[in-house]
Design brief:
10 helices; globular; mainly alpha; 0% strand; binds 5-(aminomethyl)-2-methylpyrimidin-4-amine; Heme Oxygenase, Chain A
Length: 224
Amino acid sequence: MFCDDIWQRTSDLMRAIHEHPFVTALGDGSLDRDTFVFYMVQDARYLEAFAKALAAASVRAGDSADAAFWAQSAHTALVAERELHSGYIDELGDAAKGIATSPTCLAYSSFLQATALSEPYPVIAAAVLPCFWIYQDVGTALLAKAGDDPAHPYAKWISTYSDPEFAASVERAKAITDRLAAAASPDTREAMAQAYGRAAAYEWMFWDSAWRREGWPTAEWLAP
Ligand SMILES: Cc1ncc(CN)c(N)n1
């Protein structure tokens, strides 16, 4: 199956994600608050692009149940996930507005939007899959380590991505992607694997860019 294969092929990257200092500090609660807010600001912007890619998948889906799933997921990204973000971002108030969109956030968002606009439907499905699956994998691992402690500073983040309802949506996205891959030509299947791998790499880069609070190296000459 496509998903089993790709999970195997990206296992080194998954280990690096789980071991990244941003992720381990998120899990043990030691993550600096401003670093987390920087991440949340970037993520709120990223989610708009992600939701557009999901909406494109809905438009392109041949099957109406799949179309409804992608449209529902776009709604979840824009409403439920962003609600989680605004709770954390409100703490920073106007200062959040001054945080420039990072190069990595822009690159990942642009990749998803370009894929949504110009690639076949199965490739769009593969490109958005890491956004579901990797977050559920990380959320579940952090819950196992941190436990269900409401006093944990990032409890809401952990419970959002370890939620069984979110896990069900991941299973659905995987099932759709597996079905599309099974019916795809070898070239399309390879393009799906490339798109999945690229998005998974961007997932690591997104944590890393937040950890470094990545800015534009050109900022001293041109405001980003
Ligand atoms: C970068 C990123 N990737 C995935 C997710 C989970 N939808 C997220 N909120 N942000």
